[in-house]
Design goal:
By secondary structure, the protein is an alpha/beta fold. The protein is built from two helices and eleven strands, in the order E-H-E-E-E-E-E-E-E-E-E-H-E. The chain has a domain at about 90-240: Pectate Lyase C-like, CATH 2.160.20.60. It has an eleven-stranded mixed sheet, with helices on both faces. The relative contact order is 0.09.
Amino acid sequence: MRIDARGVHYRELNARIRRAVADGDAEITLDNAEGQRYIGTGLGAGVHITVNGVPGNDLAAFMNGAAVTVNANAQDGVGNTMNAGKVVVHGSAGDILGHSMRGGRIYVRGSVGYRTGIHMKAYADRRPVVVIGGVAGDYLGEYMAGGVLVVLGLDADGRSPVREYVGTGMHGGSIYVRGKVEEYQVGREVGLETVGEADRTLLADILGDFCAEVNLDGREFRPDEFVKLTPKSTRPYGTLYAY
């Protein structure tokens, strides 16, 4: 089913999407998206939405297994508290991508803004994954509690693909950065490591899927190019609280 989103209020647009899903439409294409919020919110498995244009904030928020492909840029809050599913953005995205994400995968071919992966978490067999093709702004992985963040630094022009305060408050999960990361760029709660054999296997799986989705040749990514960031403690601020 195709829906022309031009000039349509976000509430009406999302109502049309929900009606289409209720009627059994599994493939929905939105043409001329122009900043409408909450597209894909709460949708379950078996639905694929293709967005032509720029979706608004909180794309795929609370999503429960659907798939969303964006053939342009996306705004803030992609995958907010997402439970399962996949989002592929062929352009760049704004701030707080993957906020409190609990499962599924988000792939961005371009770059992202501030606080990507803030408070990502994992539980049981749920392990959220975010891959950024370009560069990430400050506070990447802030208060991260689980899952995997990967930053590839494509088109970084020799600069570090991450900015400052990486992993501030981090107490779970892993961050993999392809390129140089200096001590001053990371939070005090984070340690820098070289990737091991288990990391290589994990990266091969994640990057194979990412490259297939965004039409990249993954052979250019070598494991020895990556730095792994992990938390030094599961309770980095434990001494700051009274009991």
